[in-house]
Amino acid sequence: MMKAFQDRNIRASILLGLALLVALVATLRFRSQWVEEPLYPSPHLTEVRMLSEYHPPLEGTPLDTELYFFDSGVPGGTLLICGGNHPNEPAGYLASVFFLENIQMTEGRAIVMPRMNKGGFLHTESQEAQLQRFRIPTPHGEREFRHGSRVTSPVLQWPDPTVYVNPRGIFWDEIVQDHPEMTVGNPGPGQQTLAGIDSRNVNRVFPGHPRGTITEQLAYAIVELIRQEEVNLAVDYHEAAPEYPTNNVIVAHERAADVATWAELLLAGDNIGISTDTSAINLRGLTHREWGDADPGVLPVLLEAPNVAQGRLKGRTTEEQIVEGRDLAYERVQMIQTQLNERLAERARRLEERGRTPRERSRRILYVRIPEGGIHIDVRTARHVQTTMRLVESYNDQMAGPPIGVASIPHYDEIVANGTGYYLHGPEGEPPAGSNGEEN
Amino acid sequence: MPETVGVYELTVFSVMVAAFFISAFAIKLPIGISMAIGAIAGIVAGGHLFPLDEAVRHLVEGMFAYFDPILIIAAATIFMFSMERNGLLQVLTSWTLRTFNRAPFVLLAAITVIIMFPGMLTGSSTAAVLTTGALMAPVLMHMGVPREKAGAIIAMAALFGMAAPPVNIPALIIGAGVDLPYVGLDLPLLALSLPIALATTWALAMPHMDKAATAESARQVEAGPAARHGAKLFLPLIVVAVLMIGERVYPEYIQLGLPLIFLIGMGVALLTGEKVSVHKVSADAMKAALPILGILMGVGMFIQVMTLTGARGEVVIQSLQLPRGWTGLYPVIGTTMPLMGSVSSFGAASVLGVPFVLALPTGPEEIIMNAAALSSIVAVGDLMPPTALAGIFAAQVVGEKKYIRVLRWCIIPGIIAVVQGLLAIQFAPVLAQYLVRIGG
Ligand SMILES: [Zn+2]
Q1: Peptide linkage before B51 cis (omega within 30 of 0)
Q2: pLDDT at site A4
Q3: How many Cα atoms within 13 Å fall on the side-chain side of residue B102?
Q4: Distance A239 CA to ligand 1 centre (A)
Q5: Which of A222, B9, B266, B354 is placed for a possible disulfide with B310 were both Cys, Cβ 3.0 to 4.6 Å?
Q6: How many CA atoms lie within 13 A of A394 on its CB side?
Q7: Would you place residue A358 in the very low, low, confident or very high pLDDT band (cuts 50, 70, 90)?
Q8: Cα-to-centroid distance, A9 and ligand 1 (Å)
């Protein structure tokens, strides 16, 4: 055996065979993420459409995605609920699935798009060592959900440019030619330059472009959906690492700021601490900026909840990180932050005694307190759900548009007490709509 | 403070490092293979071996982390070899020396900027070393600069080129990580790269400048047989430069990517000079590039397993718990950024750069200044083993077998570059007033 291994050809063949075996095992594992988990819309579903109806070239591509319409039959406004903009932000996805499976409209209608960037569900990001899926217990057994990446799979769009320039600046003239209403009360073309990988991050490529990359076409189709369906209130669910300053917030387009601020006050009554940020005018490509700039009729908001699994400080990869939101590394950081601030305060005091100005008095490493035991995905999901309900209420209170009536959604406290899974459906009863469970 | 240290994470990391050192230095396996063995040891020690296909998935996913740089390096090496084989290199050397031999001070400045140029456009030091670096190597040596120092000049100019504007990807990544658009970075980046680049070249080369000797050697350098091809010989360089600039100026029309640009350059080189065999030039180039490509794959696996086991997070956590200043945070920045930068400047910018920027003063102008400073420190990572991309390729283009001999001369300029970056961080509030123009 050893003697045979010394022969160059035999050695090469053995190594090549080994490499092929590794490639096969890895391929099967990667391909398993191309299988869509079934979703079970609520019985009040009135219609399923594909996003490609708003931009036909998207038809048949892996980025074409289901739109679930819930029409009350009573005239009113249109609510758009989006999950899966960033498939590595699981509570964002789950909150949209929660609405998909429980919503009933009493006035106007809702459109639910649970998997905005299907191209991000197909893979996990290299170096992030993420899991491919997580499980949520339901009364009908365990349900599996895919945990993906922030960006479209490189299999669908590659290579990345060295530097990505958002299409808004490049194609401004063309855009305003088609939509002259965009020249009014709008911050103008702007020039947003980003790292190449952001060309695959749908939340950096809005308003998209009809002949651009597949991700830009996806973004364009979503903007067309908002225009053609005359969406009034659009909610986009996300999560953020605890060390990221924009967290536990509603980020609102300036036109949606009043609706968001009033919702913030209503949420205080639910004991949910949240703040409102107004979308930065010179940060282009994001939903809360571009949807509102592209369509003067829509009020777009983006919600963030804290998620340790996407953090830079995260510990060992576990399902617990995603589901329970628990990570010993973050609990350690909490302690380190306390100790550091004690030291900083002490140093500052000593320096001031000597008449010098301290360089640093305190530091925030985490922008969200991670309690012992973590922030469970039920809590993060319930946050998004409750915030959406209060946004709708605020929208109606302020008569920000034609009335939108949503019925039969449990309160935050109930969702936290019972768990999200309690409200999710199972395969028994009606067959799952919109997803055939086969590979695409 | 035992409770603030991750025991599991550090234990697994120690096993990985030990396995790497034993493989690389006791068993004397190639560095790339040793990194892979370190990664596998981490998977086993961390308890992530089962399910086996999931372990394989992590290793393969990590291996692909630097797929794009791998293609760039392979293509750039082929381009460099074809310029050398078709006679372009020799003609250019002879022509430059004959024209500029009376003004070494100015010529050295011009050489520095020429070497920096591809790095400025692509954000890649490898692209600079293997293109204009390779062109300028013989010129420097004929001017009397010793081989090792010529290598050091090329390595340093290339990495300062990578840090210089208009394209600095680490700075973009840091900006995006804190939601700050890429504006106002150019001046700080230029101030942190061009002066030190010129000073480095002059300091290393001027002691060897002797006008008479340079003139003498200029007379002796033959243009070689390729001179008969005339101006068309320079076509590969022109085509590559036009495509690189075009990609920056007209991103909506030209999106070829560096690997393809270099291969087009090779195609042109095959038609415009002395006869070159495609097969031979490609095979030789791949043979030269293979060890470094292996290292990049091994390093990708190593980092993936560090993330999987929480060791990566632990490194970030431990880096963040010191107060600002020269006895605290600054030395940590000055060591961890280049060390992680040796693996990937993009990775270091995202994983360490973003938390560091948040641990420093966070006014918008200060963030820009700090992002520029941090990205200039990250660039020094291209000198750090095991990858030491700039050093390895610079040694290759000057024909030095042991790249450590080249790196020796980079130590002092490298340290000065890091200290310069840290000073820029310390004085960021003041410097930002003069260098950062965010505007409206
Ligand atoms: Zn997100």
Answers
A1: yes
A2: 67
A3: 1
A4: 5
A5: B9
A6: 21
A7: confident
A8: 50
Full residue range of the structural domain in which residue B167 is found: 67-281
Name which of A18, A123, A126, A197 to mutate to probe chain B: the one with the most chain B Cβ atoms within 10 A of its Cβ.
A126
A348/B contact by beta carbon, under 8 A: no
Q: Sketch out chain A's domains with CATH numbers.
A: 30-315+374-423 (3.40.630), 328-369 (no CATH)
- Tell me whether residue B305 is in a domain: no
Place of tokens 């490898």: B126
CA distance A121 to A115: 8
**Residues A142-156, buried b or exposed e (16+ Cβ, 10 A)?**
ebebbbbbbbbbbeb
Integer Cα distance of A414 and A403 in angstroms? 26
Task: Go through chain A and tell me how many residues it has.
Answer: 440
Rounded mean pLDDT of A245-265?
96
Of B6, B180, B308, the CB nearest to A329: B6
Alpha carbon of residue A81 to chain centroid: 11
Q: DSSP letter string over B3-14?
A: GGS-HHHHHHHH
Residues in chain B: 440
pLDDT of A433: 44
The C-alpha atoms of residue B126 and residue B338 are separated, in whole angstroms, by 16
> How distant is the Cα of A141 from the closest Cα of chain B, in angstroms?
23
Task: Tell me the chain A residues in contact with residue B181 when contact means C-beta distances shorter than 8 Å.
Answer: 192-193, 282-284
A155 interfacial to chain B (CB closer than 8 Å): no
Nearest to A127 among B46, B179, B347 (CB): B347
Q: For residue B287, how many other CB atoms are within 10 A of its CB?
A: 10
> Which element (helix H / strand E) includes A364?
none
The C-alpha angle with vertex A106 and arms to A92 and A393, in degrees rounded to 5, equals: 55
By C-alpha distance, which of A197, A221, A354, A49 is closest to B177? Answer: A197
**Residues B198-234: b if buried by 16+ CB within 10 A, e if exposed:** bebbbbbbeebbeeeebeebbeebebeebeebeeebb
pLDDT > 70? residue B374:
yes
**Between β-strands A66-71 and A109-113, what pairing exists: parallel, antiparallel or unpaired?**
antiparallel
Q: DSSP labels for B40-78?
A: HHHHHHTT---SHHHHHHHHHHHHTTTHHHHHHHHHHHH
The residue with tokens 């009554």 is A269
Cβ contact A432:A40 at 8 Å: yes
Contact B297, A309 (CB under 8 A): no
Q: How far apart are CA B274 and CA B227, in angstroms?
A: 9
- Total structural domains in chain B? 1
Contact at 8 Å (CB) between B74 and B286?
yes
Counting DSSP H helices and E strands in chain A, the numbers are 13, 14
Examine residue B342 and state whether it is found in any structural domain, yes or no: no
Backbone angles phi, psi at A142, to 5 degrees: -75, 140
Asked if the model's pLDDT at residue A384 lies above 80, the reply is: yes
Interface contacts A/B by beta carbons within 8 Å: 172
Q: Is the predicted pLDDT of residue A438 greater than 70, yes or no?
A: no
Q: What is the pLDDT of residue B342?
A: 84
CA distances from A186 to A182, A205, A232, B353 (A): 6, 18, 18, 33
Closest by CA to A314, choosing from B27, B355, B412, is B355
Q: Tell me how many degrees the CA angle B123-B129-B135 measures, rounded to the nearest 5.
A: 130
- Residue A110 pLDDT exceeds 70: yes
CB contact set of A221 (below 8 Å; sequence gap of 6+): A51, A52, A54, A55, A58, A208
Q: How large is the ipTM?
A: 0.93
User: What letters, b where the CB count within 10 A reaches 16 and e where it falls short, cover A41-57?
Assistant: bbeebeeeebbbebbee
Model pTM?
A: 0.92
| Most confidently predicted of A423-432, B137-146, B243-252 | B137-146
Least-confidence region, from A308-317, A395-404, B165-174, B347-356: B165-174
